[in-house]
Specification:
This protein is of the alpha/beta class and 375 residues long. It has 14 helices and 12 strands. The protein has helices at 18-34, 47-55, 64-72, 74-91, 101-106, 159-170, 180-190, 206-212, 232-245, 271-280, 289-297, 311-320, 332-335, 341-363, and strands at residues 6-10, 38-44, 94-98, 113-116, 145-147, 176-177, 195-196, 222-226, 248-252, 264-266, 283-286, 302-304. The strands form 3 sheets. The protein has a 5-stranded parallel sheet with strand order 3-2-1-4-5. A 5-stranded parallel sheet has the order 10-9-8-11-12, with helices on both faces. The model has no long low-confidence stretch (mean pLDDT 90).
Length: 375
């Protein structure tokens, strides 16, 4: 396959979620460049993901202050949707649109190999049941079904979904997973040993992400606050850090709610602006998996209070990279996560090569059939 490889990816590329969009972009870019492949993202929009994404436009919260803030900032959230769409249309190559699995099954996009993942595409709670599309059931030849680091998003699969998931896992030609807990679940269900691979955002170099970032705040020092789910404990940590550092606190905000000490709440932020804000921040405070990922990629000082809902995947990354997080002490030094940057760079480089080797083997390529110098 000398330059003729065609690969299609199916993932959560269309969501108004920074991690979802950026991991899809990174996986497509890596496959295209490392294997000189024609790579597309299948424009499949799971109905329930689309529905919940639309619902989240409205302030779904028990906090009256947050509801009021959300109603006042609706226009800005619609602007954010367009920024996401512009990023995808400008940076990703898409197939024709598929609105349901039946359409995908009847007329699937033509490719040599198909990749599902990453993100929580195997989480049945997010897709309103087990989604056949994200297990590549529309692909006839199981050897062409490749999983790249998908996630269950949990360390427990509800009993009602186990039979279907086992069947679909057995039908995968090449099996990998993102978290250790997911690897253990696959072993329990199928007896198979899935490879554990790193999130696609780590497949790209820091310099590549830096170029993609857009941030008009050149030269301005600030602490960046990014919270996936509102958590007053994270706000309290951010307040302490602001007091001790004495610089501006900027939040990438869902609804525009301000606890009273945030200097600026940014709502109409697209993926490029997200990257620019992380790239240029003096310090980051987050509870998000991809907030953690980009803090690491850009080698920032940061404070992490893991999001309680999806703590397993955050803990997995912390353990892999030997990162120790805050233990509750009031000083900035104690709040700040500690890690050896050189160790992290070396570990990520090794994980990146492991991922490339897995894809090479899954694609059926010879040892020398990669094309990018970083592959």
């Amino acid at each position: 396959m000398n330059g003729n490889l065609k690969v299609d990816i199916i993932t959560f590329h269309f969501v108004n979620n920074f991690g979802g969009v950026l991991q899809a972009y990174a996986l497509q870019k890596t496959i295209s460049e490392c294997f000189n492949a024609e790579c597309e993202v299948i424009d499949y929009k799971n109905w329930f993901i689309s529905f919940t994404d639309t619902v989240r436009l409205f302030p779904i919260t028990s906090s009256l202050k947050e509801i009021i803030a959300g109603l006042k900032t609706m226009r800005l959230r619609f602007e954010r949707i367009h920024m996401f769409r512009d990023f995808i249309s400008g940076n990703c190559r898409l197939t024709k649109l598929y609105r349901n699995y039946v359409a995908l099954k009847i007329d699937p996009p033509v490719a040599d190999k198909y990749v599902c993942g990453s993100d929580q595409v195997w989480n049945p709670m997010l897709t309103m049941g087990v989604s056949r599309g994200y297990f590549l059931r529309f692909v006839a030849d199981l050897n062409n079904r490749i999983a790249y680091a998908p996630s269950f998003g949990t360390d427990r699969i509800p009993k009602i979904f186990k039979t279907a998931i086992k069947k679909y896992l057995d039908g995968m030609g090449h099996l990998s997973i993102r978290e250790r807990s997911g690897r253990e679940l696959i072993g329990q269900l199928t007896g198979k040993q899935a490879e554990q691979l790193i999130d696609p955002t780590f497949l790209m170099d820091k310099c590549d992400w830096e170029k993609l970032g857009n941030n008009p705040r050149c030269g301005e020092e600030y602490i960046l606050l990014y919270i996936m789910q509102r958590d007053m404990e994270v706000y309290e940590y951010a307040r302490k850090i602001k007091e001790q550092m004495g610089i501006k606190l900027i939040e990438i905000s869902r609804y525009g709610y301000n606890p009273g000490f945030v200097d600026e709440c940014l709502i109409n932020v697209g993926p490029s602006e997200f990257l620019g804000l992380f790239r240029d921040a003096k310090y980051v405070c987050t509870n998000s998996y991809h907030g953690l990922a980009f803090s690491i990629i850009f080698e920032k000082e940061f404070c992490l209070i893991p999001c309680k809902r999806f703590r397993a995947r955050i803990n997995n990354l912390l353990k892999l990279l030997h990162i120790e997080t805050a233990d509750g002490d009031d000083s900035t030094d104690r709040l700040t996560a500690t890690y050896n940057k050189e160790y992290v760079r070396t570990t990520i480089a090794g994980e990146r090569q492991k991922a490339i080797n897995y894809l090479k083997k899954s694609f059926g390529l010879a040892r020398d059939e990669t094309h990018d110098k970083n592959c």
